[in-house]
Amino acid sequence: MSPGQILExxxxxxxxxxxxxxxxxxxxxxxxxxxxxxxxxLRILIRVSPAQSSxxx
Length: 57
Fold this sequence. Notes:
Translation Initiation Factor IF3, 3-stranded antiparallel sheet, 3 strands
């Protein structure tokens, strides 16, 4: 993904929010929104950090 793009994560794991928060903190990404539905599934929006790139070289 390109820097600044938004990644949408859909999850049913109750620990997904905490796990993704830790990952984002380590990689410099930003959690933009967390929505929990009535069935406790999660929708998490993450903005890709400008400092991170997908270059694999």
